[in-house]
Amino acid sequence: MGDGMSDRDEAFAEYFAARSGSMRATAYLLCGDWHRAADLVQTTFTKLYLRWNKVQRQESLDPYVRQVMIRTFIDEGRWGWWRRERPHDTTIERPAPPGAPVEDRLMLLRALAEVPPRQRAVLVLRYWQDLSVEETAAALGTTTGTVKSQAARGLATLRAVIGAPVPAE
């Protein structure tokens, strides 16, 4: 440790280096702006650092970090900043996934920006992070029933914004 970095700081730096990129991608889907996504990740990792001695012993830090990020996003969303920026106002830095035309991806990102924060968080966790209903509920600190209803409402909002027909129930 000749560089003056403690074991705690080194462990945190390693975790940050390994996970901050994927967390930033998730944050972008939540807020629709790369700069705000970077701010959200920075805030999340600052909160993590402050609790690092307690949480680094957990089997998996990812669920905890995801929960902190989602809750921070929802709390900040109450202030309204997430509505000021739209995905079409930013430069898309990531390539489209294989097989997905860029126009479709941009349309989906614009539509996602129209979904209320909690519903958007559910959609991102369920369909981008591929979490189960139970894992999503744990990340949001809510029930599985709420996750299911928020997902249904969020998908309905996406369909309405995109102009896709809503299936009859």
From TrEMBL:
GO terms for molecular function: DNA binding; sigma factor activity. Gene3D superfamilies: 1.10.1740.10, Winged helix-like DNA-binding domain superfamily/Winged helix DNA-binding domain. The keyword 4Fe-4S does not apply. One of its GO terms (biological process) is DNA-templated transcription initiation. Residues 106-158 form the RNA polymerase sigma factor 70 region 4 type domain. Residues 24-78 form the RNA polymerase sigma-70 region domain. InterPro entries: RNA_pol_sigma-70-like, RNA_pol_sigma-70_dom, RNA_pol_sigma-E_actinobac, RNA_pol_sigma70_r2, RNA_pol_sigma70_r4_t2, RNA_pol_sigma_r2, RNA_pol_sigma_r3/r4-like, WH-like_DNA-bd_sf. SUPFAM superfamilies: Sigma2 domain of RNA polymerase sigma factors, Sigma3 and sigma4 domains of RNA polymerase sigma factors. It holds the Pfam family Sigma70_r2. The keyword Transcription regulation applies. Keywords: DNA-binding, Sigma factor, Transcription, Transcription regulation. It comes from the Bacteria. Belongs to the sigma-70 factor family. ECF subfamily. This is RNA polymerase sigma24 factor. It comes from Actinoplanes cyaneus.
